[in-house]
Design goal:
- It is built from seven helices and five strands.
- 53% of the residues lie in helices and 12% in strands.
- The protein is α/β, with parallel strands linked by helices.
- The strands form two sheets. Strands 3-4-5 form a three-stranded parallel beta sheet.
Length: 146
């Protein structure tokens, strides 16, 4: 399943037809309710050239999808290579596709990584993040008031 209407969609559709897999690939375009799609996905592929925090990767992990991403921006802080998914250099889609194929062929590894991705996402839950922010704000408020 390919989600989105980016500039490469027509080329991807042409490639699927050329490879004879068009009937096996669904091009669903832009979606508002990504939760439904992520909940049935094994892999979330994030090919960003630029990425700040990586919220979409974190959302995928919360839905128990592993993430195969570039190493752009903050993604290395979210996606742990070989644990919650895989990483590749920006633009290295060949490596990303090989990683996807390899993990899909290994059901045990896929299941383990999906659970580890979910655990990683939980580290960023409100229950875990709010106390960290409160502690930080309290520390800086004491410093300013002194």
């Amino acid at each position: 399943m390919m989600v989105g209407d980016g500039p490469e969609r027509p080329a991807a559709e042409d490639l699927a037809r050329h490879l004879g897999v068009a009937s096996d690939v669904s091009f669903v375009g832009r979606q508002e309710q990504m939760e439904d799609i992520m909940n049935v996905s094994d892999i979330f592929l994030l090919t960003s050239d630029y990425e700040s925090f990586g919220l979409s990767a974190l959302e995928a992990m919360a839905a128990r999808s592993i993430v195969i991403s570039t190493n752009a921006g903050g993604l290395p802080e979210i996606n742990i290579d070989g644990v919650t998914g895989f990483m590749a250099n920006v633009g290295d889609v060949d490596t990303m596709s090989k990683q996807a194929i390899a993990v899909l062929k290994d059901e045990v590894l896929l299941a383990k990584m999906k659970e580890q991705a979910f655990e990683q996402a939980n580290k960023f839950s409100l229950e875990n993040i709010i106390p960290i922010y409160e502690k930080m704000y309290s520390k800086y408020c004491r410093m300013d008031c002194a």
